[in-house]
């Protein structure tokens, strides 16, 4: 995956909490640091996000996006 955002933090998903329309994804990026992202449930399903999977937190401006390869 190639994107323009330079702030890409690789880690492991430690929690996926689905709400009515939005999910909160918690990614452990090491050193005791957890990054949390709020994304649509549709995106979670399309990306196949689940606890224990590798993921990349992509930070651009004030948003945190989640990407997989």
TrEMBL record:
InterPro entries per UniProt: Mo/tungstate-bd_C_term_dom, Mop_domain, Transp-assoc_OB_typ1
Keywords carried by this UniProt record: Molybdenum
Domain (Mop): residue spans on this chain: 2-68
SUPFAM superfamilies: MOP-like
UniProt-listed Gene3D superfamilies: 2.40.50.100
Highest taxon above the source species: Bacteria
GO BP terms in the entry: molybdate ion transport
Annotated transmembrane regions: none
PROSITE patterns named in the record: MOP
Coiled coil, from the record: none
Pfam families for this protein: TOBE
Name of the protein described by the UniProt record: Transporter
Organism the protein comes from: Bradyrhizobium jicamae
């Amino acid at each position: 995956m190639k994107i323009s955002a330079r702030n890409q933090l690789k880690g492991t998903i430690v929690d996926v909490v689905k709400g009515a329309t939005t999910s909160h994804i918690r990614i452990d990026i090491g050193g005791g640091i957890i990054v949390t992202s709020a994304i649509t449930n549709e995106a979670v399903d399309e990306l196949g996000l689940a606890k224990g999977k590798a993921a990349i937190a992509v930070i651009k401006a004030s948003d945190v996006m989640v990407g997989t390869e």
